[in-house]
Write a structure and sequence with these properties.
- It is found in: Membrane.
- It holds the Pfam family Branch.
- It is a single-pass type II membrane protein.
- The protein is of the alpha/beta class.
- The chain is built from 21 helices and 20 strands.
- The chain folds into 2 domains: 312 residues, no CATH class; 254 residues, Spore Coat Polysaccharide Biosynthesis Protein SpsA, Chain A (Alpha-Beta Complex).
- It is elongated and about 85 Å long.
Length: 618
């Protein structure tokens, strides 16, 4: 098991989807949330940026609105009943007026950059006069977001060391600036203090590879604005996976996954920034009390991503590498509720959760029109995979070679298949029926003739044992309609199924037995008789129409890697596989990949055997 088996990854394909689908109105809204209105006291020559956000909002979605801030309200917020824990003026404004100048005097290469909410613009001149660089934003924020994420905008600036912190930590920032300089000297892309606590008391994933108030990044590695826009766009549409697959337990919600509520900054860092920065190498500072399964996977991932990554342990006490405490309802400031040193009980499982999970057993379903492009790889994969089953559907069995590996696995039921019509769905259903009747398989993986395995079967079976949900990449019709009208029109006239509940899905999917039997018991193929390319929509749409919404019941994750042509969205074919492509496949978290025709050299990388890629040459 690796990091990408546990946590979803915000991929480059998802960024591409955003760029292709975002509307002018949506882009304008994102500009309002993340755009800068004006900059005061710009200091472009300073190599160190200390990045902070200053705003005044209740940080949780659903909390009541606070009044428009004024100097008087901020100074008397507790007396007025708007804040109970801290006086916002003393806790957040005064440090920028008094401590920030002292810090910049001690570190002349550093500038404190304040991303200031629009409704607090009355502080801009005063903050700039004492030496801060002030970016007045176009938004006053909604709740915690978007303001909590403004601090990440400097990630795009090449030649800068960006230290992210909370305003109430300015008096502790000297060591953080030294860590940023050490990071640069070591040739690494980031330093961080993770939160090495796996679960909260209510059994949400609380592990964080980046604590939002204590890390540094080499500028220029990420297009921060594009990444923030794309991630936010997906979040507002409910297209992000909020679940992690906790080892030996299964899917649990990731804390902070709701826009625009508290913790969304660290959710962004975990899914979007972390996988990219890990490839640049990290300097990781871990508190000595750490007892975490996910920390182990984290360190393995960053070390694999960049062998120059380094790990440093430091003693507990006043460190910040600890779990956040539960937030009271009256919290009103983005920086207000960062971790304090507390006792961390080990998570306990209920009797139900302590039960042994059912071991996964997978049937491979080959839907082909040709011989397998790489039968040797598949034969090796199956021979080394205890319990795996193989079922094949090819309309012209007589054209198979007598010694064909596929021949011995052909099913009896046959459909006369043709591209882009319902016959492909009927052939898939035939494969599912045969596999469901043949043995006690728990999962069914649909594959084409140009697919290859890229991870060992044991890793797939182990992952499915922990999280038995089906896995497919799904998009609702309502979203596709916004950016690809002609494609959406295919599903507008399905007999008995309203287009608003239709879904598109990638055909190369993995179904668990429950979903497979559910789909088989709701045969609606006649309704799709005149739908173009129904295999791209039938399965997810049938689930939704029959009362099992796919985005609520399955893991919306690709299981088969495909790289698509930006011009026409068709999958790219690889006859020669470079080291870069092999690395992309390995990093994707997928268990299979396509399209690799006969003669492709994908086999030399031995990905399905987990061979060291360094042993090969590009």
């Amino acid at each position: 098991m690796g990091w990408t088996d546990v946590f979803p990854v915000f991929t480059e394909e998802m960024v591409d989807d955003f760029e292709a689908q975002v509307t002018p109105d949506e882009r304008a809204e994102l500009e309002t949330w993340y755009g800068t209105e004006r900059v005061l006291n710009a200091q472009p020559d300073k190599p160190d940026i200390v990045s902070v956000s200053l705003f005044w909002k209740n940080v949780r979605e659903g909390d009541p609105e606070l009044p428009t801030p004024t100097r008087e309200i901020l100074q008397n917020a507790q007396e007025l009943g708007f804040a109970k824990r801290y006086c916002p003026w003393d806790h957040y404004v005064k440090p920028l007026l008094e401590l920030a100048p002292e810090l910049m005097a001690k570190f002349p290469d550093a500038v404190v950059r304040v991303y200031l909410a629009r409704d607090m613009e009355f502080l801009a001149e005063e903050l700039a006069e004492v030496g801060n660089e002030v970016h007045v934003m176009k938004s006053s924020s909604i709740h915690f977001a978007p303001a909590g994420l403004w601090r990440f905008l400097p990630f795009s600036e090449s030649g800068k060391r960006v230290t992210v912190t909370d305003i109430d930590r300015l008096n502790e920032l000297e060591s953080d600036l030294l860590r940023s300089k050490t990071m640069e000297q070591a040739g690494l892309g980031a330093w961080r203090v993770p939160v090495p606590i796996d679960l909260t008391d209510d059994r949400r994933i609380s592990y964080l590879p980046f604590m939002g108030c204590q890390f540094g990044v080499q500028g220029g590695q990420l297009d921060a604005r594009q990444l923030l826009d794309a991630f936010t766009w997906h979040a507002t549409k409910g297209l992000l996976d909020p679940m992690a697959i906790y080892p030996a337990c299964g899917p649990l919600a990731i804390a902070g996954n709701r826009w625009p509520s508290y913790g969304f900054d660290e959710y962004f860092m975990t899914l979007a920034a972390y996988p990219r920065l890990a490839q640049q190498g990290m300097l990781t500072f871990v508190p000595t009390f750490s007892k975490s399964q996910l920390l182990t996977l984290d360190i393995e991932y960053v070390t694999w991503g960049n062998p120059n990554s380094e790990l440093v342990y430091f003693p507990i006490g006043s460190c910040c590498g600890v779990q956040r405490e539960v937030k009271p309802e009256e919290t009103t400031e983005a920086d207000e509720d960062r971790p304090e040193v507390i006792e961390f009980p080990s998570p306990t499982l209920s009797p139900e959760e302590e039960q042994e999970p059912v071991e996964a057993k997978v049937a491979l379903l080959f839907l082909t029109t040709e011989e397998l492009a790489h039968p040797g790889i598949w034969q090796e994969y199956v021979e080394e995979s205890e319990g795996v089953g193989v079922f094949a559907h090819r309309p012209d069995e007589e054209e198979l070679e007598k010694d064909s590996w596929l021949l011995r696995h052909q099913i009896d039921e046959r459909a006369d298949t043709a591209w882009s019509n319902i016959s492909l769905v009927r052939a898939t259903l035939a494969l599912l029926r045969a596999a469901c009747e043949a043995d006690d398989f728990t999962h069914f993986m649909l594959l084409s003739d140009t697919c290859v395995p890229v991870r060992p079967y044991g890793e797939l079976a182990h992952s499915l044992t922990l999280d038995s949900r089906s896995r497919m990449s799904v998009k609702p019709w309502t979203e596709v309609r916004k950016w690809e009208i002609l494609r959406a029109q295919r599903l507008e006239n399905i007999a008995g199924i309203r287009k608003e509940i239709a879904h598109f899905q990638e055909p190369w999917m993995l179904l668990n037995r429950s979903d497979a039997e559910f789909i088989l018991s709701h045969d609606r193929t006649d309704a799709f008789e005149h739908v173009r390319a129904p295999e791209e929509a039938y399965f997810a749409t049938i689930m939704a129409a029959a009362g099992r919404p796919p985005l609520q019941s399955l893991a919306n994750r690709r299981v088969t890697w495909t790289n698509r042509n930006e011009a026409d969205s068709n999958p790219l074919t690889y006859e020669k596989v470079s080291g870069q492509v092999a690395a992309q496949i390995a990093e994707s978290g997928c268990f299979f990949a396509r399209k690799f025709p006969v003669g492709s050299d994908i086999g030399r990388w031995g990905l399905h055997r987990r061979e060291k890629m360094a042993a090969h040459t590009a």
